[in-house]
Specification:
By secondary structure, this protein is of the alpha+beta class. The protein has 2 domains: 45 residues, no CATH class; 156 residues, no CATH class. The protein has 7 helices and 4 strands. A 4-stranded antiparallel β-sheet has the order 1-2-4-3. Strand 1 and strand 2 form a beta hairpin. The two termini are 26 Å apart.
């Protein structure tokens, strides 16, 4: 069958055209390319197949804030576990050591700050791993989204509106590091003005964020 928007040939059962990304409707089931909506003077509908459409920037921002609260609570719990395991006395001795022997030019590097630095690096690594597992596992699960996205009826899919694999969801997560390197958060704001409401990491990973109508 053929795409009703651009006339490209598409696979059976696909929800989106692989060429233009447009939704595949019943009109696409014909044996010949249909005229593009623009050629008939009609705007292409932004609604995707299956009763969903692209999620915009503000919805995604709210979902991100909800996920931030969830992850923040998890990190606080993790910090509590670390403090309980190491002991409050360790941090008291650490503070006292730094106050008595503050690091400076020509001073030997104190043992406690070295231990603290190592601890910070370990906690940071654990936080990154937990964040990756949270986002990648939830977005590749049957829910197709994190708790924040689920609360707002958002789902993460591939370009054909199909569920994403754990590998693709992982690629989307780590692509956010590139998105975050763009000044003024432009990589994220792209979700507000790109045709398919994709942020930079969505484009890199070949993903869409859809919302139920």
């Amino acid at each position: 069958m053929f795409c009703s928007s651009c006339g490209a040939k598409i696979a059976e059962g696909a929800a989106f055209c692989g060429a233009c990304g447009g939704p595949v409707g019943a009109a696409a089931a014909g044996t010949s390319p249909a005229p593009a909506a623009g050629s008939m003077g009609l705007p292409a509908a932004p609604v995707a197949a299956g009763g969903v459409k692209y999620a915009g920037f503000w919805l995604r921002l709210v979902a991100h804030l909800i996920d931030g609260i969830v992850m923040g609570m998890g990190f606080v719990a993790l910090a509590g576990i670390v403090v309980a395991a190491v002991g409050v006395g360790f941090f008291r001795n650490l503070a006292a050591s730094i106050n008595v022997n503050p690091p400076g030019p020509g001073a030997p590097f104190p043992v406690f700050p070295a231990v603290l630095l190592s601890l910070i690096l370990v906690v940071a690594a654990v936080c990154i791993v937990l964040s990756w597992l949270y986002y990648a596992w939830m977005e590749s699960s049957e829910h197709q989204g994190t708790l924040g996205k689920m609360a707002l009826g958002l789902t993460v899919t591939d370009m054909q509106a199909r569920p994403v694999s754990f590998a693709r969801a992982s690629g989307r997560f780590f692509s956010k590091m590139i998105t975050g390197m763009i000044p003024l958060a432009i990589g994220y704001i792209m979700a507000g003005f790109t045709e398919k409401k994709q942020a930079l990491h969505d484009i890199i990973a070949g993903c869409l964020v859809l919302r139920k109508i």
